[in-house]
Task: structure prediction
Amino acid sequence: MSRAFNFSAGPAVMPEAVLEQAASEMLDWHGSGMSVMEMSHRGKEFISIYEQAEADLRELLAVPAHFKILFMQGGGLAENAIAPLNLSHGGAMDFVLTGSWSQKSLKEAGKYGTTRLAATAQADGFTTLPAPATWQIGADSRYVHICSNETIHGVEFHELPDLKALGCDAPLVVDFSSHVASRPVDWSRVGLAFGGAQKNLGPAGLTLVIVREELIGHALPHCPSAFDYKLVADNQSMYNTPPTYSIYIAGLVFQWLKQHGGIAAMELRNIAKAQLLYDFLDRSSLFENRVAKDCRSRMNVPFFLRDESRNDAFLAGAKAANLLQLKGHKSVGGMRASIYNAMPLEGVQALVAYMREFEKTQA
Result:
């Protein structure tokens, strides 16, 4: 059976070349006589893998020298606790609610300090983004949290907010799990960014944290040692055993990104893929996307059949056409196509062709 086009929101599609290389190196990595899975994380073989991965990521994302790159575990959900444990100082934190993931972040952070709602798009069904000029941020804010791409609702900040322009000195904390490496990052506006790897960087198990040095070293007394950013940074992400195989695969993805033109080239590809799908949805009489055009996600495209009694037929036909994981999240229903970096243009073309044919036969 040929490989399907996998539109899963995460764990998600991986570059085929990466999977092939990992398969070829499974039993013996570079003549070491070991699989990466079997290596000591403190051995010279894995240290070389780790150092190359970190260097490639710093180059790809143009991470400034005064930011630490941490390879951690627990995913974005764990970082919703780990970030306030390190940055809240027991004080107040401000949150911008733009969908399900920022809602989860707000709820979790409330266990470690005072949380406040700076802005919300809930009244619009999370189909818009509140303009930064309308945000209500406290003068004593320890940090301002946003989810820059909401995987479930399909909204994305096309530009990170400039808190200094809003008169705010608090650092910006960004959950960029679902669009990291899909576009450049303006690090001058970021204090900390975190994300699970399983959407755009690699397999589940690895969490990326990129944090300004000046923000670390202030963990709450009850912060677990393995979650203390300073301890993790001081030990080159090896205070505890890191997710070694996930780091290795992510490193291969970083190399694949460099071979394909880096982040600038990925952004152009992602714009083209998203535009193709959104253009079809906007012209369709059977399908619709409900997100405001100025904040549509390039990575996660939710859509609905205007007649939802046809949902099952649509999904069955998609599966028969080797187009998988198109069912929307259970909390919102409908459909969703996640078109991360590793999804080729041909996959989106195949999806649009199927949707066009389905619309024709259902007319």
